[in-house]
Specification:
This protein is mainly alpha-helical. The chain has seven helices and two strands. It has a two-stranded antiparallel ribbon. Helix 1 runs antiparallel to helix 7, helix 4 packs antiparallel against helix 5 and helix 6 runs antiparallel to helix 7. The radius of gyration is 16 Å and the shape is globular.
Amino acid sequence: MLGAECWVLGAGCWVLGATIPAVSNSPVAARCAFAGAALFVALIAAFSSLGGGAPSGPMLLAIGVIGVASHVVLLPVVAALSAPEWARAGGYAWIAIDAMLNVARVNGAASSVIDPLRLGGHISAGVWMLMAASQATGPVRIVGVPLAVVLMAHALTSQWIPPWILFIPFMTIPVWLTLVGVRLRRVLH
């Protein structure tokens, strides 16, 4: 199997370009799940600090960097969780789509273009999360299955529901990633 690469300098995933085998007990994948959770919390805090206003140039760059990092750090996690290859492809697609859209936003692409495309990527994320959570047990499944369903439902219905609804899956992702990290770490011991 091909390995994933951890390209993000964060929380134990500091080995730039280190190849990580695609196995379910990777200690790097566990650390990257925790790093992803922390980065999503930082992203939530950054968005919350805007208070509905447009970000300044430096804040836009910070949000872009955190947004890219919070996704790219999850490459080893997608590789490590049990899921069919086609579902993993959805996880990888989500990471690539959201990273690309974060870079596009930093470089001036309009939110009116970026946001609908990002929602399309959330379908891929939801497919991967649903399949990975369905093959897990305990809290990873209990939190992951509804998270995936709500993420996909939001993507398909966002024009008819209040914008704050996105914060339900957005705030649940760090919880799920923490549970995934605990599960991956537990498998090691």
